[in-house]
Write a structure and sequence with these properties.
CATH superfamily of the largest domain: Glycerol uptake facilitator protein
Structural class: mainly alpha
Shape: extended
CATH architecture of the largest domain: Up-down Bundle
Helix content: 55-70%
Number of domains: 3
Strand content: 5-15%
CATH topology of the largest domain: Glycerol uptake facilitator protein
Number of strands: 6
Radius of gyration: 30 Å
Largest sheet: 3 strands, mixed
């Protein structure tokens, strides 16, 4: 036995394989979406939608574990690999029904959900990357190998369901329809389509590598007809998938080059790159930086090296100085183009909204200080027992959930020589709430011991 034969022994699947007919029967049973499977799918969609809505990764993983959506996809791959046209028709039909019900269920949930803001888990399901393709392909390969070997399906299939993440894109597509944001719908469905194609492709290749027998037909004519239909379906599915994959790879390479360019050529101690992006209409690479100034020499050197990072043909535009100056400079540039280029108008509006949001956040953080100064005279008159008062905007996080609570913490100290009752505390809290225009207030009494320790 030569070296190659010795190595091949370790990778040989044949001794571990189940009976071929038993494998086909198990996959065929998983294709059907009736009764229990359908209700489990609906429940899993609701759970996944809840997880996406509250931004809980653990809940999303739980939904993927109980979802039966892998069955029709594995069935389509098996049908293509064995030339079984009848199985492919059943798998396609059940897959289409499951997809439609999933999207409609998610849409109903997001229609009635009071939480409409798109969380990070939702946003992550709208832009597929090359990593999603690789995960789907190798996940499909692991799935068909696990189903085909003795005693391994139960351990591997849940992991495949989590890794390939079929449920979240369908829920995100439902969110896009419910909120009228079609970019969410098409982006998520794009990711779901890519996952489906590459899981099925890996299954078909796995079936051929394990040398499954081709499906037998009653006549040569029917066999030829089935092969032609299968070939058309494979080509019709593969061509857009290949085109999408090429586009994803190009985008991933470009974005990776952009990140390396920013990191190697522009980042320096004391400077923070706030954002970067390209304008295809003007072929301009815009970088917004704050902190230490990026010198003209460094910008010129970076521009000369752009081609090495796959950014040839773009002009570098660095907008910097202080944070506010950077935003104003970018606003001014966009405003000058509003009258000449209609496409720039929308970008100007988005930038203005971001600027307003930043201003609002800044005002929220400085407001407590302003209110504290303003109420000092009133405090001495209305609540003479209160010796000191500290106001701070606070964010409370929980250990077991991603939900957060925001409120104003009012830390106050009471003069021990003066009376202070629970009624005084309630009146004090209501007064602060009125002066802070309705913000949630949490009173935190400061003990004499804590006050003495703080002074030391």
């Amino acid at each position: 036995m030569n070296t190659f034969d010795r190595i091949r022994v370790y990778f040989n699947l044949r001794p571990d394989l189940e009976e071929e007919q038993a494998i086909i029967e198990e996959v065929t049973r998983g294709v059907s979406f009736r009764g229990a499977n359908l209700w489990i799918l609906i429940a899993a969609i609701f759970i996944a939608s809840l997880g996406l809505n509250v931004n809980s990764t653990a809940v999303i993983i739980g939904a993927m574990l109980i979802s039966p959506l892998m069955g029709p996809i594995i069935g389509m791959g098996l049908a293509v690999g064995t030339n079984d046209l009848d199985l492919l028709k059943r798998a396609l039909k059940n897959f289409s029904i499951a997809t439609l019900i999933s999207v409609l269920t998610a849409m109903v949930y997001f229609f009635i959900s009071p939480l409409e803001e798109a969380q990070s888990e939702l946003l992550a399901r709208t832009t597929p990357t090359i990593y999603d393709i690789l995960i789907a392909f190798f996940g499909g390969a692991a799935g068909i190998i696990a189903l085909s070997t003795r005693g391994r399906g139960g351990n591997v299939i849940p992991g495949v369901a989590i890794a390939t993440a079929l449920m979240p894109p369908l829920c995100t597509a439902g969110y896009g329809l419910a909120t009228g944001q079609l970019n969410f719908f098409f982006g998520a469905f794009y990711l779901f389509f890519i996952n489906t194609v590459f899981i099925s492709l890996a299954t078909a290749l796995g079936v051929r590598m394990m040398r499954f027998h081709y499906h037998e037909f009653l006549s040569p004519e029917r066999a030829k007809h089935a092969r032609n239909i299968l070939m058309l379906i494979v080509i019709a599915t593969t061509i857009p998938a290949v085109m999408m994959t090429i586009n994803i790879i190009r985008t991933s390479i470009f974005e990776n080059g952009l990140r390396r360019f920013i990191s190697s050529e522009l980042e320096q101690p004391g400077t923070q790159i706030l954002s970067s992006g390209t304008d295809e209409a003007t072929k301009e690479l815009r970088v917004i930086a704050v902190g230490r100034t990026i010198t003209e020499e460094k910008q010129k050197s970076a521009s000369e090296n752009m081609e090495h990072y796959g950014l040839g043909g773009y002009q570098l535009a660095v907008i910097q100085r202080g944070a506010s100056d950077s935003l104003l400079a970018l606003s001014s540039q966009l405003a000058q183009r509003v009258y000449s280029q209609e496409s720039e108008y929308q970008k100007h509006l988005e930038l203005s909204a971001d600027n307003a949001a930043l201003t609002q956040q800044l005002n929220a953080y400085t407001r407590c200080e302003e209110v504290a100064e303003a109420i000092r005279p009133e405090l001495a008159v209305l609540f003479p027992a209160v010796r000191s008062l500290s106001l701070a905007r606070t964010v409370e996080v929980q250990r077991d959930t991603t939900a957060t609570r925001r409120f104003v913490a009012a830390v106050f100290a009471v003069d021990d020589s003066k009376s202070w009752t629970s009624a005084d505390a309630t009146r004090f809290q209501e007064w602060l709430k009125t002066r802070l225009s309705g913000d949630s207030i949490v009173l935190l009494p400061r003990t004499q011991a804590a006050t003495t320790a703080a002074r030391r």
